[in-house]
């Protein structure tokens, strides 16, 4: 006769509670944080180049998954479009130029953004911090009308880091309201994002989209970051490139010289250190909140570095604005404590159009419209992804091994610096890549942006309500 073992009631309750907690943990939607650096080159982070001072990014890369083959568009606005829609910007005629202050138009309002998608998945708090750059000529392009629930930052690119001016007007806002705040733009954005994280509810998932304007021109760094990078006030200062000072005048005065170091590269490096420091504030907020195990953080650059303004993409060829690897292969790291094995390098082909489908699936979103990207979670976990092609724009297309650009074929598995055209040696592969490119080029439509009338000036404080009322 078998003995019946009596299990204490308390133990049964404990087992049930643990099972319930485990089910809750498995079903809980992750917090999502996307952080974009502006014009950060492949050779401009400490984990690629020990001369760069980026301790927070270095630690982040050591704990996360570094994406070795992550592709973006070669300039700012197009990458943001692809990231937020999962679609190539060519579909909207917005691949080859950024949305400038004098442009009328923006990301088409019929398109759903990642923020819109996450809203349907139960993410009540969807905040954007920093640079928008997707349209400021009408209220309908405003982030709060594109799926986000709060906005803190600037509409345009290339603002003065200290005065926050662009085109002679102050471009700094909280939601729809212009605000005046003292401080270095990257630092302000980092602190505001960290505050949002600290004040978030543990019971509700959040989405934070953080778009730093650094280290994009104009060349301006904080004094403390210049000193870390060897600045010597007794030594001369090189003249910095660009005319942003003329565009960003405050009451007619050019203040662009503030924050410049001894050399262009030193100034740029100090700006990168400033971005790293602001990113560190975000990481500290996540750790202090105790939510690292339920928060996925995706860091990337919007394109390669601009060598004109001090960036470096070595050993890759090319720079921002080109479809060579130095323009489109971006620094990117993904971290999710306990879910992704840290300290790994993912070598599978991935890109900016994959961010929306991947994060939408993780969030449990339903009825997602077709995108040009795909869910790459398996790639983040070190698994092989199906063979595919990514469109780089113009004459560029890339696969896991091959790349076609400007009519030349490169074997990236042996030649990541694109030194040798192997089209004649691999005619079949060359033909496949040409066919893939021809298919992508059918997506391209003309640029729909138009310019404001000659002599146009933005309203005081870039008040979008005034811009819309002028129509």
From TrEMBL:
Query: Which PROSITE patterns does the entry mention?
Result: SULFATASE_1
- Quote the PANTHER family the UniProt record gives: ARYLSULFATASE (PTHR10342), ARYLSULFATASE B (PTHR10342:SF274)
Going by the UniProt record, its keywords in alphabetical order are: Calcium, Glycoprotein, Hydrolase, Metal-binding, Signal
* Stretches assigned to the Sulfatase N-terminal domain: 30-365
Entry's Gene Ontology molecular function annotations: metal ion binding; sulfuric ester hydrolase activity
In the UniProt record, what gene is named as encoding this protein? arsB
Family label = Belongs to the sulfatase family.
- Signal peptide residues are 1-25
Tell me the InterPro entries matching this sequence.
Alkaline_phosphatase_core_sf, ARSB, Sulfatase_CS, Sulfatase_N
Q: Which domain of life is it from?
A: Bacteria
Protein name, per record: Arylsulfatase
């Amino acid at each position: 006769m078998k003995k019946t073992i009596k299990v204490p009631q308390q133990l049964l309750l404990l087992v049930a509670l643990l099972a319930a907690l485990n089910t809750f943990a498995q079903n809980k939607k992750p917090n999502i944080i996307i952080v974009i650096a502006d014009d950060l080159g492949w050779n401009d982070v400490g984990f690629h180049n020990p001369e760069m001072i980026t301790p927070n990014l270095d630690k982040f890369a050591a704990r996360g998954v570094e994406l070795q083959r992550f592709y973006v568009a070669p300039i700012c606005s197009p990458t943001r479009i692809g990231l937020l829609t999962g679609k190539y910007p060519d579909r909207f005629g917005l691949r080859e130029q950024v949305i400038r202050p004098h442009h009328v138009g923006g990301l088409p309002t019929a398109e759903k953004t990642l923020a819109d998608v996450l809203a349907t998945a139960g993410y009540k708090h969807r905040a954007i911090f920093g640079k928008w750059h997707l349209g400021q000529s009408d209220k309908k392009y405003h982030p709060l009308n594109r799926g986000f629930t709060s906005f803190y930052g600037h509409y345009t690119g290339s603002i003065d880091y200290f005065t926050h001016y662009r085109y002679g007007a102050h471009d700094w806002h909280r939601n729809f309201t212009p605000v005046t705040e003292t401080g270095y733009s990257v630092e302000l954005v980092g602190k505001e994002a960290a505050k949002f994280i600290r004040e978030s509810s543990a019971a509700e998932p959040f989405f934070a989209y953080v778009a730093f304007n650094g280290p994009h021109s104009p060349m301006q760094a904080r004094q403390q970051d210049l000193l870390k990078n060897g600045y010597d006030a007794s030594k001369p200062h090189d003249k910095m490139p660009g005319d942003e000072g003329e565009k960003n005048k405050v009451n007619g005065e050019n203040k662009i010289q503030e924050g410049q170091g001894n050399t262009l590269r030193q100034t740029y490096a100090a700006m990168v250190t400033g971005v790293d420091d602001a990113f560190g504030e975000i990481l500290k907020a996540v750790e202090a909140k105790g939510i690292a195990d339920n928060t996925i953080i995706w860091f990337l650059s919007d394109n390669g570095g601009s060598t004109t303004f001090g960036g470096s993409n070595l050993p890759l060829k090319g720079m921002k604005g080109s479809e060579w690897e130095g323009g489109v292969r971006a620094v990117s790291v993904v971290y999710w404590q306990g879910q992704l094995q840290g300290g790994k390098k993912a070598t599978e082909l991935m890109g900016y159009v994959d961010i929306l489908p991947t994060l939408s699936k993780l969030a449990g979103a339903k009825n997602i419209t077709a995108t040009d990207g795909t869910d790459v979670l398996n790639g983040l976990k070190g698994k092989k992804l199906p063979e595919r092609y990514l469109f780089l724009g113009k004459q560029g297309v890339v696969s896991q091994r091959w790349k076609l650009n400007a009519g030349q074929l490169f074997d990236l598995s042996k030649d990541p610096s694109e030194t040798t055209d192997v089209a004649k040696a691999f005619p079949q592969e060359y033909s496949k890549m040409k066919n893939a490119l021809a298919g992508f080029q059918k997506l391209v439509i003309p640029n729909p942006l138009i310019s404001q009338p000659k002599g146009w000036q933005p309203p005081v404080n870039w008040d979008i309500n005034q811009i819309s009322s002028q129509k």
